[in-house]
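In this section we walk through a basic example: taking a raw amino acid sequence and producing a predicted 3D structure, encoded as discrete structure tokens. The instruction is simple. Fold the sequence below.
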Amino acid sequence: MKKVKYTGSGLRTYKYKGKRIKIPRQVWIILLAAVVITFLAVLLGNYLKMKVANSQAEEEEQSLFYTITERSEEENSKLYHASLSEENKKTSPSIQGAYLNYLQYENEEEIKTAISDAAAAAYTALSVPLTDEYGKLLFIPDALSYFRINTEENLPDGDSEEFGVKEKLLKTIEIANENGLYLSGIININSDIIYGTSTAEANAVAVFDILFAREIYSMGFDEIVIYGLDDPSVERIQVKDTILAYINSIKKECPDITVTVVLSKGYYSDSASAPYVEEIYACADCLAIDINSVVNECSEDKVFDNVNAVCTSLSGSFSFYNIRAVLSGKSAQIKSDQLDALSLSNINNWQFITPDSDVDVNIDTSEKTQIN
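The resulting token sequence is shown next.
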């Protein structure tokens, strides 16, 4: 290093006169490769993040419907995989329910007479249809406003009358409460929409059903009975998952309402479905069996024998789960035969879910079971 002469002004500076350092070509190649690899790693990381995000979005899209909040894994484990020991058996509501379709009455007095007759016949509950057998609403609920549907353009038959459909329903609730009757709202779900249409449409229907359940509970119903999700054409594990999703979401929005789920005779009798029944039982408030379909599959003179066979073969399940029988009201004889068959197996938890015949059936009050 050579010292530069200082002139007396400015800063002293030194000039380096040594040899330049020469970087080998191999080092340049390594540095360039490192830059390229880092760049490609960043690109790959962003790509994988995008794939994960898209996958999660697809899983949400494929789910039955979106829920507002999520239970923890521990809570779900308690709900869906509860130990079914005798100590953990739940107390499901036991009722004897008369079918009452408020739409057929012209005024308040007729509704009052029908409900008084049901109470006098020792019924403890009313089965009130909220949809028809295809899932169509029988009245226009406020929940439709969430979907921006013009309710005035979608009034059901009879809702333009002076004593409209919703007024009839509200009066039915009021009079039933005055008579101390348990109110069970029957919801038929169109399984073709839930299992056979687009995810978006199924989601919309399911979200509405959740809001609908909350509304009818606020109107004065004690429970809802979900009928129609057990589609025999659908795999039973899918049926189970769908039912659990329904119950879980309804309970989040309306935790105090009782949810009863109706399953087919085949679902209970198939041993492969036993774990699914246990999961549904752990989540639902009450299990029910579709005796109405059993009646529809046989001639009138075989009703007693067929219903008795179901009760006998599933006696253990009836006893353990306190399964409720949902019955047909086709005729006085059919009603009587069903009740006789249930009585032989000491089954006192039942309700009619189809229109009663003109001649009603009185119940032996000594067999009356109080609502738990």
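Looking at the output, two observations stand out. The chain is about 45% helix and 10% strand. Residues 140 and 154 are 8 Å apart (CA to CA). In the next section we compare this with other chains.
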